[in-house]
Design a protein that fits this description.
By secondary structure, this protein is an all-alpha fold. It has 7 helices and no strands.
């Protein structure tokens, strides 16, 4: 799997991020670092404890990282959650959290598949 194919799986904009970062090695570096980001776990904790401020900050961070990395779909859904949490703890928070979780899991699965295939090819 190529990095571009990984981006297709996670519904991202490979060409945009490559245009900004200019080197595929740099894009790859930050894509793989995404797997170690704790924002999603922080979001889960904020939601579980109904801590709106923590959940908002985590959703906002996910949105920003997704935007910078060209993870279009994750950026879109986390933006919706961020805006909902910015206002209040509305009825749609639970639905939006499930959407973010589903897209986040697809995103990380695509990255992990890419990482595993790269490790296999190097061995």
């Amino acid at each position: 799997m190529t990095l571009k194919q990984c981006y297709e799986l996670l519904e991202g904009d490979y060409e945009d991020v490559l245009g900004r970062m200019r080197k595929e090695a740099l894009v790859e570096k930050f894509v793989l670092k995404f797997l170690n980001d704790s924002s999603f776990e922080t979001l889960r904790q904020g939601i579980a404890t109904r801590d709106r401020e923590t959940a908002f900050r985590a959703a906002h961070t996910i949105k920003g990282v997704a935007q910078n990395l060209g993870f279009t779909k994750l950026c879109e859904v986390s933006n919706l959650l961020t805006e909902e949490l910015r206002q209040d703890w509305g009825e749609s928070v639970a639905v939006l959290v499930r959407q973010v979780e589903a897209v986040y899991e697809r995103t990380t699965a695509a990255i992990l598949a890419y990482k595993e295939e790269c490790a296999y090819e190097k061995s």
